[in-house]
Specification:
It contains 18 helices and seven strands. The protein is of the alpha+beta class. It has a four-stranded antiparallel beta sheet. It has a three-stranded antiparallel beta sheet with strand order 2-1-7.
Length: 480
């Protein structure tokens, strides 16, 4: 008991020394909040193009999946991306959700304690992950121990800046920095991979390398599809067209599922005849479960690269082997990664039994992980029936036909919220896995996250007072 009593005092003392962003002391207008959100995004994108000093020349192509789910760009100051934040969140979610740490998340003090510990762990993981990336060779260093330490400090500093940018967006802007950075990273990848006319060998400030030619085609799949179609290479044309089609289909499917919801009717206690409904979406916990699960997968795959060494089968370690391009070829890490171009393999009759098993294990991990994190998130983020019932009671509303009692509202909400947390986690995990199997640009997981983030931003901005917003923004958001 004494140890438990000391913990809040300890974390409070630690929190005083952590860098932080103060909350605004006044109510901000729409334009000001939009300005801070845009500023945070601009800083993130700028740092994504600042190369870390001391790196050895190498390709980071094998880390595209990590860049998508972690909102990072390997080799830059944004190498860690949101990794430290999400890793800290995963650990706390598991500890609190499994009651190993018994915090009552319906109480403000417990939620504040959760946030403080989350930030403390995130800053710690910025240094831990930076060290692990360098020592594992994921970020190769061109120099001895002094350069190695400098690279680690640069990566950790970038991770801490992301934590502060996330805090800036949450307190001064709209939405979450974590979501904003993921959407920006995936969105830019989709645009480049779909329509860029530049060659794949294009290098900064070397314009001659950007001009496409024979044996050096444009990186945009649209141009590959058109050129192969015109020249009569129908198989190659199909290979270029399938990811484009899959990307559009995944976009439309996610948008459709976003609109599925249950409406709980409510009425004002003091004003008879007036009421509204409380919407409970199928994807009740939004994209959080798949972010946490995909980040867990990314951490597993990065861990698998620690200690790998050359063997006749390739670069192998305890968890499996990798080819020269860094793609998993066997072991646990192989079965916890998405099959590449599974849909194309089906169309061209090139599917193998090992790829079928790999698809099944990957899908199972993504779905089960999303369900678990969805259930935990409901209990730790104040989205459970008891908390929502308190909010409904606080605004003076009740369910028609029942007396005004938060316990009654809670019992009604309990018919929907627990099943929706499970079904929503299952659906979002299934969508992400199936999207990955189609070979969609930016990966199915990335597209799912991006569409949901943009949709959530649209909903949040639409509910804001738009008096001081630009007329074009008011029109886009459905205002007058």
């Amino acid at each position: 008991m004494e140890e438990q009593a000391e913990k809040p005092e300890l974390i409070t003392k630690i929190a005083k020394f952590l860098p932080s962003v103060e909350k605004p002391l006044y109510k901000q207008g729409f334009n000001e909040r939009l300005k801070w959100t845009g500023l945070a995004l601009l800083m993130y994108l700028t740092m994504s193009y600042i190369t870390v000093f001391g790196l050895a020349p190498t390709s980071f192509e094998q880390f595209r999946f990590f860049e998508i789910v972690l909102g990072s760009k390997f080799g830059s100051l944004m190498t860690l991306g949101i990794g430290p934040i999400v890793t800290a969140g995963i650990i706390l979610q598991l500890l609190v959700g499994s009651k190993i740490i018994n915090w009552d998340m319906t109480k403000p003090d417990s939620r504040k304690k959760f946030q403080t510990w989350n930030k403390t762990l995130a800053i710690s993981f910025a240094f831990i992950e930076a060290t692990a990336f360098v020592l594992a060779g994921a970020v190769p260093v061109a120099g001895g121990v002094p350069i190695l330490l400098i690279v680690i400090l640069q990566l950790a500093a970038g991770g801490i800046i992301v934590i502060l940018l996330d805090e800036l967006v949450s307190k001064w802007g709209f939405g979450s920095g974590v979501s904003l950075f993921i959407a920006a990273g995936v969105g830019s990848q989709i645009l480049v991979r779909a329509i860029s006319p530049l060659a794949a060998t294009c290098a900064p400030l070397q314009f001659s390398t950007c001009i496409p030619g024979e044996g050096n085609p444009p990186i945009g799949l649209l141009w590959g599809f058109l050129s192969n179609l015109i020249s009569g290479n129908f198989i190659e044309s199909l290979v270029n067209f399938m990811p484009l089609l899959a990307t559009v289909l995944v976009f439309l499917l996610v948008i459709y599922i976003q609109g599925i919801k249950v409406e709980v009717p409510l009425a004002f206690s003091a004003l008879r005849g007036f009421g509204k409904s409380w919407s409970l979406k199928l994807l009740y916990t939004s994209n959080i479960p798949v972010i946490l699960t995909a980040a867990l997968l990314a951490n597993v795959q990065l861990t698998a690269r620690v200690g790998i060494s050359p063997t006749p089968e390739g670069l192998c370690g305890v968890m499996g082997c990798f080819d020269d391009q860094g793609n998993p070829t066997s072991g646990i890490v192989y079965y916890l990664s998405a099959p590449r171009n599974l849909l194309i393999d089906v169309v061209t009759f090139a599917l193998t039994p090992s790829e079928v098993l790999r698809a099944f294990t990957y899908l199972a991990f993504l779905v089960i992980g999303s369900v678990i994190f969805s259930v935990f998130w409901v209990n730790t983020a104040g989205m459970d029936a008891k908390t929502i019932a308190g909010q409904i009671e606080g605004i003076g509303m009740q369910i028609p036909g029942y007396r005004r009692d938060p316990r009654i509202v809670e019992s009604v909400l309990n018919r929907y919220i627990p099943p929706l947390s499970v079904l929503g986690g299952f659906t979002v995990g299934l969508l992400a896995a199936l999207g990955d199997f189609t070979g969609a640009i930016g990966s199915g997981t990335g597209i799912l996250l991006t569409v949901m983030i943009i949709y959530n931003y649209y909903e949040e901005l639409s509910n804001q007072p738009l008096e001081d917003a630009h007329p074009l923004i008011r029109k886009l958001l459905g205002g007058e």
